[in-house]
Amino acid sequence: MNHLAKKYDAINLSQGFPDFDPDSRLIDLVTKAMHSGYNQYAPMAGNMELREAIAKKYDVLYQSSYHPETDITITAGATQAIFCAISAFVKSGDEVIIFRPAYDCYEPAIALNGGKTISVTLDGPDYQVNWNTVKEAINDHTKMIIINTPQNPIGTIFSEKDLLQLQALTKDTNIIVLSDEVYEHIVFDGETHKSVCLFPDLKARSFVAASFGKTFHNTGWKVGYCCAPKALMDEFRKVHQFNVFCINHPTQKALADYLNEPDHYLELPGFYQKKRDLFLDLIKTSRFRFTPSKGTYFQLLDYSAITDEGDVDLAKRLVKEKQLASIPLSVFYNKEINNNVLRFCFAKTDDTLKRAADIINTI
Ligand code: PMP
Ligand code: GLN
């Protein structure tokens, strides 16, 4: 869709990335780090100041302790954290449960390691998890359950009840949980993010994957991290060490300094809620239907009242005829399905959102 958007000079609300720059202070901190000798390999598990700053964040936000020495590893974005966690544990014949529609990097990593993806499908418009269905999907081959809260592409969040259900279902099993929490700071309407680390029995069997790209508007830097208790992290690092060894150093140092300044990530829910509200207000009289996103920077729009065209066809047609790019929801199911829904990214300047809304209102 990015390629098509460029070709047709379309407004691009498809792939999830901001069309504005990170705080210039953070950019200055990278330059400063480069001038201060942070130009050679970082330690394998990551720059220690950054690991300490991350540990402090978990203490403050979740009253949950991850030891910087043993429990936290800096990764090449959350993608590499997810890949290493899966590769460390999923072997031939193992089953991994995921919730669809799902972000696209889980299933290929499972397949590369010889595992089998078991999809639990969530249905719109509210996409709630039926935990009985999850219970039925669990068997002796189940090695891992991957959750994603807030969930891309559907903009839902897991409640405390959801996590308690997951904790109860995995109790007394060997199942590992991989919790993709890259949008942890992008939760709306006064709700708070429920991390697996808030639930001690769950935390004991879980990896948390996170990304600075989403939090500090720098997806192109590809710096993320993974937290897990030592026993799990030891296995993770055996993969990480020979996968990339370590991540680029000056950005780690800059992120450590920035994370140690108060409140940067606390501004994020308000910042993105304003954008969501602006976007939805601008399109409220359009023919699209929607339930406001509860988290992430994605909004689903249902076009059932407009056309019964397939979502891939419509998404392509909108780029060519209306110069507006989105992502068809069906691609996140990885099977033939059409819910008449498109995903729009609202991590854009207000001007971009206004220009996009002008187009949406003519469809
Ligand atoms: N998980 C989800 C749900 C995402 O939306 C993304 C962003 N593309 C990632 C993981 C990957 O994050 P990163 O860019 O840090 O690799
Ligand atoms: N997470 C972003 C999205 O869902 C994009 C990252 C990617 O394209 N790999 O659009």
TrEMBL record:
<dbReference type="InterPro" id="IPR015421">
    <property type="entry name" value="PyrdxlP-dep_Trfase_major"/>
</dbReference>
<keyword id="KW-0032">Aminotransferase</keyword>
<dbReference type="GO" id="GO:0008483">
    <property type="term" value="F:transaminase activity"/>
</dbReference>
<dbReference type="InterPro" id="IPR004839">
    <property type="entry name" value="Aminotransferase_I/II_large"/>
</dbReference>
<dbReference type="Pfam" id="PF00155">
    <property type="entry name" value="Aminotran_1_2"/>
</dbReference>
<dbReference type="InterPro" id="IPR015424">
    <property type="entry name" value="PyrdxlP-dep_Trfase"/>
</dbReference>
<dbReference type="InterPro" id="IPR051326">
    <property type="entry name" value="Kynurenine-oxoglutarate_AT"/>
</dbReference>
<feature type="domain" description="Aminotransferase class I/classII large">
    <location>
        <begin position="9"/>
        <end position="360"/>
    </location>
</feature>
<dbReference type="InterPro" id="IPR015422">
    <property type="entry name" value="PyrdxlP-dep_Trfase_small"/>
</dbReference>
<protein>
    <submittedName>
        <fullName>Pyridoxal phosphate-dependent aminotransferase</fullName>
    </submittedName>
</protein>
<keyword id="KW-0663">Pyridoxal phosphate</keyword>
<keyword id="KW-0808">Transferase</keyword>
